[in-house]
Write a structure and sequence with these properties.
heterodimer; A: mainly alpha; 13 helices; B: Alpha-Beta Plaits; three-stranded mixed beta sheet; two-stranded antiparallel sheet; 9 strands; 30% helix
Chain lengths: 402, 257
């Protein structure tokens, strides 16, 4: 097999620096938004004591989930021995680190006291999934960083390639289990409190991560004027289709389980029928935009050779995934907690029994988008500094694939 | 002209030594002083006590908010002001509410109940389980509260609390009372008037207010002391926990709900 050559991402200056400048501008807007929210307090956001986690959490969770999924391409190469995926491993590891950094930045900057981050890193309550996540997230950076080294240093890193690949794979499963369990272990709220949350988040990560990977790979190769072969794109495309279908399946099982439990009828009715904006986001956003249309674009013979269809499908998967996380995070809080089963709340100063309203502020959105920009900037800068992208991804000749 | 010598400069060594001693003393002394100063008062709370409350909903009057007002005064919530550019609706959703009045109607029988709702001081508090830093804590005497020095404002406890008992401080604090310090960006909730109780008081602010208005719906006391009024009352009347299905063994009990 011809030796794969990796080369730093190189394109003409205006294109590269123009792109970086745009990303830097978005990050600056996000920093201004953070200053506004932290200086004044969260009262300037749409968050309240009723909806305590807002749009920044949606962005953060979305990015963190996608981060672990972006590593899948590398895992397929090293853990499952897929030769077509192996050359993509380096970029996959880099993207995973970038997305996680972006997501964590948003998460941390939305804390009430981000200045106390050191407390969170030195004082642990080991019964808390959050505390575990602090360790899982830090460990992810370290392990994927080493994994990246093992992939890139062919002389000294090679012996560690397999073991690190396996470690990274299991670590990422643990990480997404931890993220899903943030919700799965909340007994109080009816929309959560389900063990299926953890595996559902894992399958969501497969799908969002791969969609992110396909878009950034296509963007990087367009940026640098390199080519990606048909065979490899088709493999990635078919895999995305499987993951999108799997997300829909898990969603179905989650709702069917809830529909079997009488106690959960009203929360199901809220999401599926009468929840207003959340119902619309579920059906139109998650199911149609994030599920049905991408599946059509990916599998319809009409688009079999269309790069645009693959890019659009990936983008729609991300948009649908964003709505899915929004419905889980915000919708789950907006639905009133059943503090007094069997009772109707006639009056309360604290919105007991009432659907909580939440209108995200512009600053929250800016912080969230800045998280994506942070991820993209890290990937763009590191791709120019490190040899992560193969010089060409043309299809191998017949008989070259073992 | 200075005298050159190959002998070490003893003055410099001495100076370094003295500086090191002074720096050590300055670092350690405040800790020692604090330990010495606290030695007399730092007995700590004991698990021989479990503070709890019994709410007699039959006595809780419709439209009365004496307990809420008293709590707000005791904990400096009444002196918090709405940010100028905030709507009343949002302020109501964002301002701290340690205790609230709730009016309920049974869906089947139509019976109407009034009750005050606050932190239920669970034996197994979900807020304590989820708190990443351990800021959300349960004292040995059963009081559940937030250590505002280690709270990072992640609000996970608010997601986990089945009673919506917690409030996040959304804006800057202009004024506060000595026994209830607060800061923007931290979470807080009812602490059963811990500063009062630790100072030797036997009643909470809400109980006093309810008593003063002649309702006597709130009874506070040590649930582990068989001779306390609350233990006797709990033995006499049947009471229940809100969301007893969660098996949290709450410290606040209600009769006739």
């Amino acid at each position: 097999m011809a030796k794969m050559h990796y080369r730093e991402l190189w394109c003409e200056s205006p294109r590269y620096w123009g792109g970086l400048a745009l990303l830097a501008f978005i990050i600056m807007l996000g920093m201004a938004a953070t200053y506004h929210m932290e200086h004044n307090g969260h009262y300037v956001t749409g968050m309240s004591n009723q909806v305590v986690w807002g749009l920044p959490h949606v962005f953060a969770i979305f990015l963190i989930v996608a981060a672990s999924g972006a590593l899948n391409v590398a895992s397929i190469g090293s853990v499952f021995g897929g030769p077509m995926y192996k050359p993509l491993g380096r970029f996959s590891g880099l993207l995973a680190i970038g997305l996680l950094a972006g997501g964590l930045a948003v998460l941390v900057l939305d804390l009430g006291r981000p200045d106390r981050l050191i407390v969170a890193m030195t004082t642990y309550n080991f019964k808390s999934i959050f505390a575990w996540n602090v360790i899982l997230y830090s460990g992810f950076f370290a392990i994927v960083g080493l994994y990246l080294w093992a992939m890139m240093d062919r002389r000294y890193g090679a012996p560690y390639y397999k073991p690190l690949g396996f470690t990274a794979f299991f670590w990422r499963l643990a990480l997404t289990t931890g993220t899903g369990s943030i919700f799965g272990f909340l007994v109080a709220r009816e929309a959560y409190d389900a063990a299926i949350m953890a595996p559902m988040f894992i399958i969501m990560s497969f799908s969002f991560g791969l969609a992110f990977f396909i878009i950034s790979l296509m963007a990087a190769y367009w940026w640098a004027g390199r080519t990606i072969g048909e065979l490899r794109m088709t493999k990635l495309k078919n895999l995305l289709g499987v993951f999108v279908g799997a997300v829909l399946y898990f969603t179905l099982v989650y709702h069917l389980t809830n529909l079997y439990i009488t106690q959960h009828y009203s929360v199901e009715a809220f999401v599926l029928l009468n929840g207003g904006v959340y119902t619309t986001m579920f059906w139109l956003g998650q199911v149609v935009v994030g599920g049905v249309i991408p599946l059509f674009l990916l599998y319809s013979p009409a688009f079999a050779h269309s790069r645009l269809a693959i890019a659009s499908a990936s983008l729609l998967v991300l948009i649908g995934g964003f709505f899915q996380v929004y419905v889980i995070v915000i919708g789950g809080q907006a639905f009133p907690m059943n503090v007094f089963p069997g009772k109707e709340v006639l009056s309360s100063s604290f919105y007991d029994g009432a659907v909580a309203s939440y209108t995200p502020s512009l600053a929250e959105g800016m912080l969230g988008v800045a998280g994506i920009a942070i991820a993209m900037t890290l990937v763009a800068v590191a791709s120019r500094m490190l040899k992560v992208l193969p010089e060409n991804l043309e299809d191998p000749d017949e008989g070259e694939i073992a | 002209m200075s005298k050159h010598t190959d002998q070490p400069d003893m003055k410099r060594r001495e100076f370094l030594g003295k500086t090191a001693i002074a720096a050590t003393a300055a670092t350690v002394a405040p800790g020692v002083m604090l330990t010495v100063a606290n030695a007399g008062s730092d007995e700590g709370v004991s698990s021989d006590t479990r503070w709890g409350m019994l709410i007699d909903t039959n006595k809780c009057a419709d439209g009365c908010a004496a307990c809420v007002d008293a709590c707000n005064k005791e904990n400096g919530i009444d002196i918090l002001s709405k940010p100028e550019d905030q709507s009343d609706e949002m302020w109501n959703a964002q301002r701290p509410q340690w205790i609230r009045k709730v009016k309920l109607k049974d869906k089947q029988t139509g019976v109407v109940t009034n009750l005050p709702m606050m932190c239920q001081h669970c034996e197994h508090p979900p807020c304590e389980d989820v708190c990443p830093t351990g800021a959300s804590l349960k004292r040995a005497d059963g009081i559940v509260m937030v250590d505002r020095h280690t709270c990072i404002g992640c609000r996970y406890c608010m997601m986990a609390c089945p009673y919506k008992a917690r409030s996040f401080i959304h804006s800057n604090i202009a004024e506060q009372v000595v026994n209830s310090p607060r800061g923007k960006g931290c979470v807080e909730s009812c602490n059963m008037c811990a500063p009062r109780i630790d100072g030797g008081a036997t009643t909470t602010a809400c109980q006093d207010a309810c008593m003063k208005d002649g309702h006597q719906a709130i009874l506070f006391g040590d649930m582990k002391d068989p001779d306390s009024a609350i233990s006797k009352a709990l033995k006499e009347k049947s009471s229940r926990q809100i969301r007893a299905d969660l098996e949290l063994n709450t410290g606040v009990r209600y009769t006739d709900v």
